[in-house]
Specification:
The complex is a heterodimer of chains A (241) and B (351). Chain A has 241 residues and is mainly alpha-helical. Chain A has 6 helices and 2 strands; from the N terminus they run ααββαααα. Chain A has a two-stranded antiparallel sheet. Chain B is 64% helix and 0% strand. By secondary structure, chain B is mainly alpha-helical. Classes of the chains: A mainly alpha (241), B mainly alpha (351). At the A-B interface, helix 2 and helix 6 of A face helix 6, helix 7, helix 9, helix 10 and helix 16 of B. Chain A: Pfam families: Vma22_CCDC115. Chain A: This is Vacuolar ATPase assembly protein VMA22.
């Protein structure tokens, strides 16, 4: 269909008052929307692959730093038998929220809340999670399984980019600079290995903390990726009018 | 009288000095480490070690191997050698050999007490204890609630009893108190060992003074760096430093007020023996400090073998074996994690 015919069709759809009724989207607009969805899908895929690669390198670094700490402190001081088995609340929690923006309604969004003190007062109800994180995770898995069929993930050899680190900070809401409370909670968490933690052990902790942030980002990007894939699939299945 | 040890040393200790010098020749060389660094799997490491003195200890271990298994079996070899020497030793060498193990005893006590605080099973903790630091009543440490009970119920009958006078309180045990207890005990132990070596006199006193002073200084630096950012006050930090060593007393006063690694560097660079150590580090960096200290320690320990008729060779051999076991642990971890490019970050060649 040529451009003039498309404009003519659009004009016919307008009522006598001159207000257009959105009975049918012009072909060019529909194609540009299709392109945007495909672009969004490819961008999400790219972000996802970069984050997965970044996670792999951060975890490698963290494990080596932990081995280095064991090397200097001694294997008996850093082992599974050092873990504190007393009941205590988690310093870091993952909350699941659902997007309310019109373009992403229903899309899950994971928020990492780091270093919440076990001595802090009870949170405001408006900040509390809408559901049990475990249940939310199960629902998310079911949603993911229903949409993600036949996606094959390729691997890249790219290193972590600074943009992905900044995006990480934005998504989790955690600033890159260390504040006093977070530092205090970090040392409190490390105290199970001894109150005087060496720099290598602190570095390992930071690496695993960064890995946790990256995991939350991966979950968010994956949700966005699957949403974009779903939209692209719908457009491919619907006939062009 | 110093210089006349050759007249009488061999009467009681000649056999054991020959034994320990024989053991020293069995330490892994640079060629051995090069072969180990090229291994692809832990089974390859086991195969290479089977041609060394560790062979009999690893040959019956089934695959797949774990890095902790390699460390445990290599440690068993050291324990067997130590027990043989201790059984053959007469006074004062037997007391000297026992002093070498008190550091491990302190670590074991702290491990049991910390694990009990964290509600771990005692049997699981006993398996993690260093074999050189075991004593009969160690399992009963789990019943103590504070340091006074710890001393009264268990430690009063152990060699660590004299070291508890400075840290007996009725405060309940928590992570910081336990760490202060560990370092206070170790400080008392080092000072006692130092005094014992001074009483022995001669070449033993001279060589061991240098080695123990280095140990005390290294501990002071590590305590300073590790306590940066923690709730340990300057006074408490100062109390954990030993009362001997090159840094005592003026270096300790300056270290006590350090707030970051660069200030520590500024203090240590005033002392020529430590200038070379800190010259290897870039500003703000502390990751390679451990390796720099280990290299300096190994150099001093190897020099102990250059002189005869003193007990320092026994101390030096034990420490060199422990360094070798640390090297094997690091190489195994790098191989297991497929990070062989990082293997030279922490391996310290002995010869």
């Amino acid at each position: 269909m040529g451009e003039d015919e498309a404009i003519a069709k659009f004009s016919e759809d307008q009522n006598d008052d001159g207000v257009s009724e959105s009975k049918a989207v012009p072909v060019e607009d529909k194609e540009s929307i299709n392109d945007k969805n495909v672009e969004k899908f490819l961008d999400s895929m790219d972000d996802y692959l970069i984050l997965v690669d970044s996670l792999s390198s951060i975890l490698r670094q963290g494990w080596l730093e932990l081995a280095s700490a064991r090397h200097s402190m001694g294997a008996s001081r850093i082992s599974a038998s050092s873990y504190d088995m007393k009941y205590h609340s988690a310093a870091t929690t993952l909350q699941l929220q659902h997007e309310t923006a019109s373009s992403d309604v229903g899309q899950p969004h994971f928020v990492l809340r780091k270093w919440e003190s076990s001595d802090s007062p009870k949170k405001d109800p408006s900040d509390s999670p809408k559901r049990d994180p475990c249940e939310a995770k199960l629902e998310e898995d079911k949603w993911v399984q229903s949409v993600s069929s036949g996606l094959r993930i390729r691997t890249k050899g790219t290193s972590e980019s600074s943009e992905s680190r900044e995006k990480k900070a934005e998504n989790t809401g955690s600033p890159l600079s260390v504040d006093g409370h977070a530092q205090k909670e970090r040392l409190k968490a490390l105290s199970m290995f001894g109150a005087l933690a060496p720099p290598k052990l602190r570095a390992a902790q930071l690496s695993f903390e960064t890995a946790l942030e990256t995991l939350a980002d991966i979950a968010n990007v994956r949700a966005s990726l699957l949403r974009a894939y779903e939209q692209v699939q719908k457009e491919m299945e619907s006939p062009i009018q | 009288m110093y210089g006349f040890e050759a007249l009488t040393f061999n009467i009681h200790s000649g056999y054991l000095e020959a034994i320990v010098r024989g053991h020293r020749s069995g330490l892994l060389t640079a060629a051995d480490y090069n072969n180990l660094c090229q291994c692809e799997t832990l089974d390859d490491i086991k195969m290479h070690l089977s041609a060394t003195e560790y062979g009999p200890y690893l040959q019956n271990e089934p695959s797949p191997l774990h890095t902790t298994t390699i460390v445990e079996k290599c440690t068993l070899k050291l324990v067997d050698e130590y027990k043989h020497m201790l059984s053959q030793a007469t006074e004062p060498l037997s007391t000297f050999l026992q002093y070498i193990t008190y550091g491990h005893m302190i670590d074991n006590v702290v491990l049991i007490v910390t694990g009990t605080l964290h509600e771990r099973d005692v049997h699981e903790l006993l398996e993690k204890c260093h074999p050189l630091g075991m004593f009969d009543s160690i399992a009963t440490l789990a019943v103590a609630q504070n340091m006074r009970e710890l001393y009264r119920l268990v430690l009063v009958d152990t060699p660590l009893a004299p070291y508890f006078s400075e840290c007996i309180t009725s405060e309940d045990l928590d992570d910081m108190n336990i760490e202060i207890m560990r370092n206070t005990l170790y400080k008392a132990y080092l000072e006692d060992f130092y005094d014992f070596c001074q009483k022995l006199g001669g070449a033993t006193a001279e060589i061991m003074s240098d080695l123990l002073a280095f140990e005390a200084d290294r501990r002071a630096v590590n305590i300073t760096i590790n306590s940066i950012g923690t709730e340990l006050t300057r006074d408490d930090r100062r109390k954990l430093y030993s009362n001997f060593g090159l840094l005592y007393p003026y270096g300790h006063e300056e270290l006590a007020v350090c707030e970051d690694i660069d200030q520590v560097r500024g203090v240590m660079e005033k002392y020529p023996p430590y200038q070379t150590i800190f010259a290897k580090l870039s500003y703000g960096e502390s990751q390679m400090l451990d390796k720099a200290f280990y290299e300096e320690e190994v150099k001093r320990l190897c020099l102990a073998f250059e002189q005869q008729f003193h007990y320092g060779v026994f101390f030096a051999y034990m420490r060199l074996r422990e360094q070798e076991i640390r090297n094997l642990m690091w190489i195994s971890e790098c191989v297991a994690q497929n990070q062989k490019s990082r293997v030279h970050d922490s391996v310290v060649f002995i010869f």
